[in-house]
Amino acid sequence: MENKLLELKDVRVKYHTLDYDVMAVNGVSLELNKGESLGLVGETGAGKTTLALSILGLLPKGVGEVYEGEIIFKGEDLLQVPEKRMRDIRGMHISMIFQDPMTSLNPVYTVGDQIAEVLQLHGNKHPDERVDEILGLVGIDPSRKVCYPHQFSGGMKQRIVIAMALACEPDLLLADEPTTALDVTIQAQVLAMIDDIQKKLGTSMILITHDLGVVAETCDKVAIMYAGEIVEYGTLHQVFDKTRPHHPYTVGLFGSIPDLSSDKRRLEPIYGMTPDPSDLPEGCYFSPRCNHCTELCKQKGAAIHVSEDGHMLKCHLFTQENKEAAE
Ligand SMILES: Nc1ncnc2c1ncn2[C@@H]1O[C@H](COP(=O)(O)OP(=O)(O)OP(=O)(O)O)[C@@H](O)[C@H]1O
Ligand code: SF4
Ligand SMILES: [Mg+2]
Asked: Cβ distance 15 to 64 under 8 Å?
């Protein structure tokens, strides 16, 4: 049985500005199976939101453009479907929790009406029962459907936004930093809830986050994104296994979070800044910050190495050419 839900093939996205192009996504390839969750991790500006907006066809018109690649969802290339078909796909098959959830709610309508509207848009003529059901699913008493957004706490508002995203039981949920605006205890609750519902409904998910701890709790696969590229990609086990080789950027990410099992007293931050996507460095994009950088890295974009069990690293360190150059 075909289990593949989403496949990105060499997706490239740029934003046109008056003076220059911003190369936000630079050749991303990924696969997601039904029911699977993928953590997309990277620093600010890495291109995570841009990638999610590209999947949904919601890049700003006339500014953002997927100029190369394919986004195959259930066998259909989303970059080729007409806007009318895309409108059906949004919400019904793919939905997104935006980075700033508070802006997703309309202050002048009750939350019940807002969830009902999503359902009606996708063909449910009698949504009342489903509104109650979906509020119950996110742990909000259905009697509160008559309340307005301002009558809820931040954590509850986030639950309502999640309820709206899941109302039509989409096949794929794109969750863009769904808990950054919440305090730490509520973050944990909301994440546990997303995880629970995602498993209950069999929804696949791309969870965008800066936080490797969140990924460890929630995801089956991990993609580490840097300057619009996936530099490491594998199962949760592969990416978190300290005994395996890793991309120098991933090593840096792990070095900048506390590890209670180690007696090291100091964290090791990644020095330097993410490159400006309108002026990317020659060769490997991580080269200006990398302790392992060689002449080859400065001249040639990093090569892809895939281990026998599918763990991908985009780095010259692991390729034959680099080994030969070092000899
Ligand atoms: N409308 C736009 N016009 C021009 N550049 C843009 C636009 N939107 C995003 N960018 C640029 O594209 C790059 C990628 O942005 P994106 O929002 O995808 O990053 P991100 O990984 O989601 O970051 P964060 O973690 O801060 O949310 C950034 O350099 C950003 O400045
Ligand atoms: S390709 Fe070279 S510069 Fe880039 S991450 Fe690997 S070792 Fe570092
Ligand atoms: Mg973002």
From this structure: yes
Helix (H) or strand (E) holding 213: helix 212-218
The C-alpha atoms of residue 170 and residue 25 are separated, in whole angstroms, by: 25
The whole-number pLDDT of residue 189 equals 81
Q: How far is the CA of 273 from the centre of ligand 2 (A)?
A: 16
Q: Is the pTM of this model over 0.85?
A: yes
Per-domain residue ranges of the chain = 104-169
Residue 88 φ then ψ, to 5°: -70, -40
Quick one: which atom of ligand 1 is closest to the CA of 277?
A: 29
Mutate to test the pocket of ligand 2, among 292, 296, 313, 323 (most ligand atoms within 8 A of CB): 292
**Is the shortest distance between the CB of 292 and ligand 2 below 6 Å?**
yes
Which pLDDT value is given to residue 198?
A: 86
In angstroms, the CA 95 to CA 169 distance is 9
- What single-letter amino acid sits at 249? Y
Does 248 sit in the ligand 2 pocket, CB within 6 Å? yes
Are 224 and 254 a contacting pair, CB within 8 Å? Answer: no
**pLDDT tens digits, residue range 219-259?**
999 999 999 999 999 999 999 998 999 999 999 998 866 56
Beta carbons within 8 Å of 73's beta carbon, 6+ residues apart: 5, 6, 55, 89, 93, 94, 172
Question: Mean pLDDT, consecutive 10-residue segments, the chain of 327 residues?
Answer: 88 95 97 96 94 96 97 96 92 86 86 94 89 90 95 89 88 91 79 85 93 90 97 96 94 75 64 90 96 93 94 90 58
Give the pLDDT of residue 154: 84
- Tell how far the Cα of 176 is from the centroid of ligand 3, in angstroms: 7
Asked if residue 315 has its Cβ within 6 Å of ligand 2, the reply is: yes
Closest atom of ligand 2 relative to the 231 alpha carbon? 5
The order of strands in the sheet holding 37-41 is 94-97, 172-176, 204-209, 37-41, 221-226, 229-235, 312-314, 304-306
